[in-house]
Amino acid sequence: MITGFFAIFRMINLILIGILIFYKRKDPALLLAWILLLLFLPPVGFVMYLLFERTPVSRKKLLFLTEYTDQRLERQIDYQFSECVASVIAFNEIYNGSRLFMYHDWMYFADGKSKYDQLFIDIEQATQSIHLLYFIVRKDEVGQRLISLLAQKAAEGVEVRLVYDSAGCFGTTLKFFDSIIKAGGHVYKFHPPTLRLIGLNYNYRNHRKIVVVDGRIGYLGGMNVGKEYMSLDPNYSPWRDAHLRLVGDAVWDLQHRFFRDYFMVCEDKRDEVHIQSNLDHYFTASLVTTICPIQIVSDGPDTPTDDIKLAFVKMMQTATKSIRIQTPYFIPDQLFLETLKIAAYSGVKVEVMIPTIADHHYVYRTTTSFIHELLEANIDVYLYKGFLHSKILVIDDEICTVGSTNIDQRSFKINYEVNAFIYDQLLTHRVSHQFDKDLENCLLVDESYEKNKSWVVRLEEKVYRLVSMIL
Fold this sequence. Notes:
Elements: H1 2-23, H2 28-40, H3 42-52, H4 63-72, H5 83-96, E1 100-109, H6 112-124, E2 129-134, H7 141-155, E3 159-165, H8 178-182, E4 186-190, E5 210-213, E6 217-221, E7 239-240, E8 243-248, H9 251-265, H10 269-277, H11 279-282, E9 291-299, H12 307-317, E10 322-326, E11 330-331, H13 334-345, E12 349-355, H14 361-368, H15 371-376, E13 380-384, E14 387-388, E15 392-395, E16 399-403, E17 407-408, H16 409-414, E18 417-422, H17 425-439, E19 442-444, H18 447-451, H19 455-467
Parallel strand pairs: 2-3, 3-4, 7-14, 10-12, 11-17, 12-13
Antiparallel strand pairs: 1-8, 1-9, 2-5, 5-6, 6-8, 9-18, 10-15, 13-19, 15-16, 16-18
C-alpha cells in the first residue's frame, strides 16, 4: 500500500520534473534543488510544488496603454548627467524599457503616521479617481479608516478601484470591503490561492504598494496598510520604513502599472471598456516644473528578465565612494553578493542595515547567515534596534532607489515589485540623511556577533540557507 502510494507520487513528480526542465526558465541551482526534492522526497516535494511553484497568470495584452502614454508623454529637456548616472539611466531604458521622467515634486516618508496623514488628505480631496494596490490591508483601525474613507468617496461619485493580494491579506475576505463595493467601487483579490480550501499558495504574490489619486498624485514604497507601520504594534516597534509621494510625470507609469495589474484580475468588462474609452481621465497632464529625474522599474514573474535586481547591480557597479543598503531581509543571489564584495574590495564604503526584530524566523536566520561573509569583505553591518522595513539603495549620495523590493530571491525572481530609481541629489540626500539618523539607533556588528552564536542558531542558518532558494 505504502509502496504504491510512493510510486504514484514518484510518477507525478517525474512529470513535474519534465515540466521544470523543458518549460520553465529557471536558475540552474534552483532547478537542481527542485529536482532533488521531487526525486528523493516525493510526497513532500509534490506538496511544496503545489504551494511554491505555480505558473503565474498570463496578463492581458495592454498595448493600447503603452501606445497611449508614449504618444502623450513628450516633456523632456536637455540635462547633463554624470557618466555613471547616465549609464544607469541608459541601462534601464535599453534593458527594461523604463522611461526617464524629469519633472516631480516629492515627499519622503520614513514612518507610517506621516504617510497615512498625507495619503488620507489626498484621498479626501480626490475628485475623479482613486486607485490602490496593496500587498497587505489589515482589518485594524488603520485599515478600517481607509476602507471607510474609500467608501465615502465612492458614494460621492469618485471612481474607486482597489486590488489586494490574497496571500498578504490571508484571512481578509471581500466582506471587509463591502462598503466600498456597495458604494459603487471595485475591489478584487490578486492571484487567489491554488488550494482554495486551505488558502495556500505562497509564490507569485503582488508585493507592490501603489496609490494613484486623480491621475496626478502617486505613492510607492515599502508601507502597506496596518497599525504596525505606525509603530503601534509592540512586537514590531519602533517600525522604520521608506515611502514616496510623487506629483509629476512618473505618476503616469504608476497609473499604467496599476491598470496592468487591475486588468489581470478585473471581472467587470464594462469597467474595462470604460477605462479604455476614457484614458484622458486617468492620465492627466502634469504642470510640475521642478527637475527631479526618476525612472519607474517594475518586475515580476511575467517578465523573462530580472529587471530590478540587475538595475541594483548596475547601480552598485558605478559606485566609487559609498553603497548604503536598508532591507528587512538580506538573502542575495551570487551575482548581487559578489558585486557588493567587489565594490568593498575596491575601496568603496559599503554599509548594510538590517533589523534586530524578526517577523519571519526562518527568513531572519537566513539573513543572519550572510553576516560573516559581509564582515570578511570589510562591509559594515548594522542591526537596527526595532523592525526595519525600509527598502533603499543609495550610491555615492548621488542616486538612489526606493520601492517594494527586498534584497532576497522572492523579490528578485518571484513576486511582482516596483521601484523608483532617483537621479536627483536633493531627494537622494534626504534618503541618505535618514540612513544617518537610523545609525543612531543601531548596533555595529563585529566578529563577536559570530562567535557568540549558539550551535542551534548556526544549524538553523545552514538549513534555512540551503532551502532558501525554493522558499
